[in-house]
Amino acid sequence: MMEELHSLDPRRQELLEARFTGVGVAKGSGQNESSNQSLCSVGSLSDKELETPEKKVNDQRARKRKADPFDSSQGEIGHKISDYFEFAGGSGPGTSPARGIPPVVRSSPQHSLSNPPVTVSMLALWPFSHTFISQHSAPLLFLPRFLSALVQQGSPSSLSSANTEHSSCSLKPATLHMLHKATQSDLTIEKLTAMENNKNSDLEKKEGRIDDLLRANCDLRRQIDEQQRMLERYKERLNKCVTMSKKLLIEKSKQEKMACRDKSMQDRLRLGHFTTVRHGASFTEQWTDGYAFQNLIKQQERINSQREDIERQRKLLAKRKPPSMAQTPPPSLEQNKRKSKTNGTESEAYAFFFFFFFLIVSGLMSVLFLHPFSILYNLFLCLCRLSQAEYHEQEEIFKLRLGHLKKEEAEIQAELERLERVRNLHIRELKRIHNEDNSQFKDHPTLNDRYLLLHLLGRGGFSEVYKAFDLTEQRYVAVKIHQLNKNWRDEKKENYHKHACREYRIHKELDHPRIVKLYDYFSLDTDSFCTVLEYCEGNDLDFYLKQHKLMSEKEGRSIIMQIVNALKYLNEIRPPIIHYDLKPGNILLVNGTACGEIKITDFGLSKIMDDDSYNSVDGMELTSQGAGTYWYLPPECFVVGKEPPKISNKVDVWSVGVIFYQCLYGRKPFGHNQSQQDILQENTILKATDVQFPPKPVVTPEAKAFIRRCLVYRKEDRIDVHQLASDPFLMPHIRKSVASSGTSGMAMASTSSSSNSSASN
């Protein structure tokens, strides 16, 4: 430290001496900026005034006096402060004693008198150092040791011990200085120490809390990193699973396609196939039956020939029928035996005689180009009559043969019907395979990065339905691909797309167990878009009726109950919806059987009964007249006039009646075996004022009454969907109560009639 004091600038040594002794500096010292750098400066420009309070400025010119040797205000340079220091060694004179002070005590050059750094040690040091130096400024030998002790003992405890050591010599001035305005505080060193300790403890707590939070943050970050790595592993594993699922599904689909094509090739020979036939300048496809049908036709021809042969023999047997025994009186047994013998010999003789006679006559007539052999043979049979036993024997044989032929014919007919159903399936499969081979989606593409197409289910006018697999939800779905004709005008494409979007909006909001759910909708390109529907394993009701023709009344009632339940839901939502296209083709059998659940689909022609277009009295206008399936539409849809017809939910009620009739009888009630064009030309539905029921199969009167209530000609007299849902025929408990009341009424009538009869007796 002494070496640093020797290296101090002389001018700065003088300023430091004046600062500690309280003696003013030279006149020119105000221009030196280094004079403001003080070890114990509190931080204001009034420090000079406070350090030299005895100095007064005299405005008048006074008489010069002999200057004090320690007064530096006269401009004379006195002894330097370094002259009083005993150096043990160093770099030479001029070293500042403040160079060895640490930065905590010594103020930095950047601080000015207006804003110096203030510490607790400086506040405690200032009063003691000021009074001590002012009283003992002559040798100032204590200052280096004091400064070195201050540097070595920078703690508040050392400062407090220094204060107590010199309290005897400077207690009063120090107390006065502590209360001076320059200190800006009346806190004691104990309070400051306590505050500093509290601050340090709070700081330690905060630092500990920060450390804990940092450790927790690090733990959370580590957990997040682990979860992120685990998520990446799971994503990679999931992608592998999806890739493997796609691979397995594609392999399975290819195997199923190969099996279907192999079976179709086998059935092609057995059931038949299409052949291209030329008619003039055009080519048409014609169906050719397979060997199974050809064998059945041959068997049918054989049975027909055998039946004709038996019928001819029966006619000949009738000619040889013995005469009736009732015309002659019954003789005795012996007479009968004798007469039979004599009659037999006589008849044989007459027969031979007439036989030779007719041979001669026939020979003569053959000259005239006539062939009387059949006449001759018949006359011979008439003469050679059989006995009654022989006649009955031959008659019984012919009857048995005819019965056996009828049985064979029935079996052949049943086999023919079965083969026809199988042939229909075969034809349908051939068309499906042909459409699938010509489709652009035959190579198992993945649409929308989600739906893997497996195989074609069917094809309509402008759409294809594929069985697909949802890779995200891991379920089978039905993807309906709508493809617009590229040659259409933009207006027609826009109308079709608008129609499909309308169907999507209607179907998307429906949520009922008897209605097929619509999952998704997306576009492929400008000319095609897709709708994703719920997949049902079974076929539709139309396919079932083509295979089985009809069903039992219980099965039909179960299907109608489910349809009516779905219609009730459609009319309870807001706004209500008219399906308008109810038919067996739009009713899906979930299990493929008539005894399971059903689901309604295809809302392409649905009508929304909103408040703007629907009136509870008249209904709403039919804007799409001519659309739909004519066999299942009511008469009001065919009325042609200046204004479009009015419809309501009673349209669906009529469709329910037609479907139930077809399920029970295997045929449509109106326009059966007619095309839609014939129905329009002949006004078949407009003339359908009454429904007729065939005698077979047998149907209960309750079912017939229910069908009549649905097929009422005038819509004003027809029931609506809500009334249909509460119909007694569809409510089991109501039907049982009605049946029990009917049986009890019959029992009461029978008892009353019996009592009346007993009374009359």
TrEMBL record:
Entry GO CC: nucleus; perinuclear region of cytoplasm
Alphabetized UniProt keyword annotations: ATP-binding, Coiled coil, Kinase, Membrane, Nucleotide-binding, Nucleus, Serine/threonine-protein kinase, Transferase, Transmembrane, Transmembrane helix
Major localisation: nucleus
Cofactors required: Mg(2+)
Ranges for domain Protein kinase: 451-730
EC number: 2.7.11.1
Name of this chain's protein: non-specific serine/threonine protein kinase
Organism the protein comes from: Myripristis murdjan
